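User: hey, got a sec? need Alpha-hydroxy-acid oxidizing enzyme folded
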Amino acid sequence: MKRAALNIEELRRQARCALPRFAFSYLEGGADDEQTLKDNREVFARWRFIPPVLTDSSQRDLSVTLCGQTLSAPLLIAPTGYNGMLRFGADAMLARTAKRAGIGYIQSTVSTASIEEIAAENLPQHWFQLYVLKDRTVTTGLLDRAKAAGCTTLVVSVDAVHFGNREKDKRNYRRPMKLSLSSLVDVALHPGWVWRTLKPAGMPGFGNLKPYVPADKQRGAGGASYFSEQMDTRLNWETLAWIRSQWQGALLIKGILAPADAQRALDAGADGIVLSNHGGRQLDGSVSAMEVLPEIRQLCGADATLLIDSGFRRGTDVVKALALGANAVLLGRPMLYGVAAAGEAGAQRALEIILQEVDRTLAQLGCTSVNQLGPHLLRSQC
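Assistant: Yep! Here you go:
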């Protein structure tokens, strides 16, 4: 009987075996030399724990309240796009995993499943991530559909209006979304992936954009081309004010790293921010979200809602972020490794690993609640 993965790295290795090269490179890759991608992992070593002893931490409560909703743990599944390339039905698998665990699920504008398909899963915490498109009728259409689907929180991504230079993707394609000959040969060597991913419904598309994309561009290269052309490169603070006027629910701004931008976003009416460098996929050489977290927490005050992503692979990483001032952590690649490796069971295992590690770390720090975490439990190695 195959042993269950013990950590996220083991799920990553399983995902690498399960996926053809082009799909794993899309999941794993970063921009340019991938220095930021590396820094996102290495940054956690800058802080070490100072564990108290002789404290009763036999009972622990991981629950938190975010944007008026109670989560069983300070975790959300991050918005990730085109997950249908990893496995058919991946978005719904991730949504159901979040539902079972009682944590939040953030659906991407460019998810393979539509807002309505995920809403049918009856998630108690269904959030929607928005890329602002040039055609404002499409943008307002997405907002209206998110409201109708019961999404309570909108997460607006502001760090990807100009796409990063992802060289791994370029090596695997002879032109956008058209695989090179070597990549096609590699696909043929992964019949299991073809069976799991392509056989049920063919090439995945962009479920949320389907009503707006011409019929001949629904899948693959056509959908990707439409999305690229529609990205609003003029996105600015006035656009944010317009979105605030269109959305009455909680509003978070994702992709902020500059402390001044964090404060300005809150002043402009955002209910919180997500510190992120897009998982190292945008500007290579940018700071990690963890580097700026303490400064942004100090600037924005104790009451500001600060979420964070980019580079998290261990429960100890999550606890360090919480101790430095984050309210919760978004999990992206760890969940995708799980779903690519073993479908819904793999996603569930990925989340189970992180939750167990967070709980164990809390116990070893003598804490009975995540609210007891703070910088006093860490020593900086900088």
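Quick note: The chain has a mean pLDDT of 94. Let me know if you need anything else on Alpha-hydroxy-acid oxidizing enzyme.
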